[in-house]
Design goal:
The structure is a single chain. The protein is α/β, with parallel strands linked by helices and about 500 residues long. Helices cover about 30% and strands about 25% of the residues. It contains 13 helices and 25 strands. The strands form eight sheets. The protein has an eight-stranded mixed β-sheet, sandwiched between helices. A four-stranded parallel β-sheet has the order 20-21-23-25, with helices on one face.
């Protein structure tokens, strides 16, 4: 008897839950319609497209409960689904590589701000090397390619409402460069109040009380916003077939002709629609997404999707040996097909935030690589670590500004003078977080050719021509300051205490 009651109650619960979900959805739709009435005609047209994508995401968010993967059903990808880069490189290049380049478009994800590095405005406008910004280096790389092969690979920037205006002002400086630059904008989605599950925006405005009401919904939005912008159709009509997508702050993400040739040389009936560049995991990459086989498809598994009990297993370097660099090669006709058939399937990332006033909100996001399971003949390529050189922190910035790397035509390569190819492990303390502070603490960047590990904590400055070798740890305790003198050579040293060098 009790079983039937339990079953009935369970049935009633799901019906109750279903009604509740429907209520949330109806309330959300009403709120969105009300918001649209506050916009002018042109803005409302764009926002309506954005909101259609958001409604779809919100609907799925209400349906999905718990982790989106069953741990027991995860398998390692089959051997041939992740190819070693050397095997692809061994094929060599054809004489007509220019033909391949004519079918390529380079897309950089340019929606992020430099706030985590203490900078205002788009992250791509931070100087990283010899006064060159991320954007300068990108333009130089593609211009070099276009001149060398006498071709015209265009650059497309996916901006967000946070970066669009500042980026467009800067683009004027590249008008005489041999690179066509296009931009399109990521969608603008409303942040949701965690309790009421309603938008916190009171109008479509973006200033005053609405300044924190909006967000760009992660780079998985590239497919819909690229398609909606009309740019995808324009590029297809020019005969373009593939995009190479990467984060603008990954300085290792240059156009690789071997991977491009591999894509172009597949037989028409087995055309590969998606390549994800992966690389071997180190202890520093334990949070990176990995490729798995799941229900007969290659699939990206992100740490946010892993059940709590399995997080340590996910982070292990033994079970999941590779991670996603977010350098992706994707077929343009396939994107159009999947968008038109509404078949682009990406897991939802629920990103909780607390706003300045203490209000708890959630952002619904997706990741560009998660769509891999929707594409035909998708594969991974295990590339050298040098293709993953992201600059997320001032510690990364120190590495790319140093003599560990040489700069040639916008590309950074590890210096030949470094005897082993691994990058040193650098951890700079909070006094170095902001780029401005970081720059004032170095009279010039130390020689790091023989460095393995550097940890710096507290109030520390570096004089001119300092050389760091082996493992160097410098710790100034609270209230102390350490000035490393000009010309100092520190090899396998721990420096602590107080050392002031003052001008006499």
């Amino acid at each position: 008897m009790s079983l039937t009651v339990a079953a009935l109650t369970r049935g009633a619960m799901t019906e109750f839950e279903q009604k509740l979900r429907q209520q949330h959805e109806d309330s959300m739709l009403r709120e969105l319609e009300t918001l649209l009435t506050t916009a002018d005609k042109a803005e409302a047209e764009v926002s309506r497209k954005d909101f259609n994508g958001f409604k779809n995401l919100f609907h799925r968010f209400l349906q999905v409960k718990g982790p989106s993967v069953e741990w027991a059903r995860i398998n390692r990808p089959p051997e041939d689904s992740i190819q070693p880069y050397d095997r692809i490189k061994a094929k060599g290049l054809p004489n007509n590589i220019t033909e391949c380049l004519r079918k390529l478009v380079v897309v950089k994800l340019n929606g992020g701000l430099g706030t985590s590095m203490g900078c205002k405005g788009p992250k791509s406008l931070i100087s990283v090397r010899n006064e060159n910004t991320f954007l300068d280096l990108t333009v130089q790389q593609i211009e070099h390619l276009n001149k060398k092969f006498n071709t015209d690979v265009p650059l497309v920037l996916m901006n967000s409402f946070n970066t669009d205006e500042d980026t467009k002002k800067i683009l004027q400086k590249y008008t005489h460069h041999r690179v066509k630059i296009h931009t399109f904008n990521q969608s603008r989605y409303p942040r949701i109040n965690k309790e009421s599950l309603l938008p916190i925006a009171t109008s479509m405005g973006m200033s005053g009380e609405n300044a924190e009401a909006w967000y760009p919904p992660g780079h998985g939005d590239i497919y819909a916003s690229f398609y909606n912008s009309g740019l995808l159709d324009k590029l297809l009509s020019e005969g373009r077939e593939y995009i190479f997508v990467s984060n603008i702050d990954n300085l290792g993400a240059t156009v690789d002709l071997f991977i491009l040739h591999h894509l172009m040389s597949q037989p028409a009936d087995r055309r590969c629609e998606f390549i994800m560049e992966v690389t071997d995991k180190t202890r520093a990459d334990v949070k990176g997404g990995t490729l798995i086989q799941y229900e007969d498809h290659l699939r990206l598994l992100e740490i946010a999707q892993v059940p709590k009990a399995h997080v340590d297993e996910f982070k292990s370097v033994t079970k999941f040996k590779i991670f996603n660099t977010n350098n992706l090669w994707i077929s343009l006709p396939a994107i159009r097909r999947l968008q038109e058939e509404n078949c682009m399937d990406m897991e939802i990332i629920v990103n909780p935030k607390t706003l300045d006033g203490g209000l708890n909100v959630i952002q619904l996001e997706t990741a560009v690589g998660a769509a891999i399971k929707s594409f035909k003949n998708a594969m991974g390529v295990n590339v050298p670590r040098s293709r993953f050189l992201p600059v997320k922190t001032s510690s990364d910035l120190l590495l790319v500004m140093s003599n560990l790397y040489s700069l040639d035509a916008g590309s950074l390569t590890m210096s030949e003078k470094r005897e082993f190819p691994t990058t040193p492990h650098v951890k700079l303390g909070s006094s170095f977080t902001k780029v401005q502070d970081f720059l004032t603490r170095f009279e010039n960047i130390p020689d790091m050719l023989e460095l393995d590990h550097l940890t710096v904590s507290g109030d520390v400055t570096f004089g001119k021509n300092v050389s760091l070798k082996g493992t160097v740890i410098i710790i100034a305790n609270h209230g102390d300051r350490i000035d490393i003198p000009a010309g100092a050579m520190l090899e396998n040293k721990i420096v602590s205490g107080n050392l002031r060098i003052l001008d006499h």
